[in-house]
C-alpha cells in the first residue's frame, strides 16, 4: 500500500473539512463495503494452505503420528490436531 497526497485526490472543500479533524495526521481510508477482497484472494497462499492441510490429513490416515507431522511441517501438535479435525469434518460433508 502506498500513500497518496490528499490534495491530489480530494476536492479542495473536502480537504479543508478533513483538515478540521485531522490536520497533518496520516489517515487510513478503508475500501467501501463490497469492494474488499477476502484474505488470500490476491495471492495463492490460501490455496497452498488448503493443499498442505489435505496432505497432512492424508499422511495422518497413512499412519504418521501428530508428532511426526508437526516436525515435518514445522507446526505445533495442537495445530496438526486442529487441521486433522477440520479435514475429517470436511470429508464427512
Automatic annotation (TrEMBL):
InterPro entries linked: c-mor_Regulatory_Protein (IPR052411), Homeodomain-like_sf (IPR009057), Mor_transcription_activator (IPR014875), YraL-like (IPR049739)
Domain Mor transcription activator: 13-89
Name of the protein this chain belongs to: Mor transcription activator domain-containing protein
Top-rank lineage group of the source organism: Bacteria
Organism from which the protein derives: Mobilitalea sibirica
Amino acid at each position: 500500500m502506498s500513500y497518496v497526497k490528499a490534495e491530489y485526490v480530494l476536492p479542495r472543500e473536502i480537504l479543508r473539512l478533513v483538515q478540521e479533524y485531522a490536520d497533518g495526521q496520516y489517515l487510513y481510508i478503508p475500501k467501501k463495503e463490497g469492494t474488499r477482497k477476502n484474505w488470500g484472494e490476491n495471492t495463492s497462499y490460501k490455496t497452498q494452505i488448503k493443499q498442505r492441510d489435505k496432505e497432512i490429513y492424508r499422511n495422518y490416515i497413512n499412519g504418521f503420528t501428530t508428532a511426526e507431522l508437526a516436525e515435518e511441517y514445522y507446526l505445533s501438535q495442537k495445530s496438526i490436531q486442529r487441521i486433522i479435525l477440520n479435514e475429517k469434518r470436511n470429508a464427512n460433508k
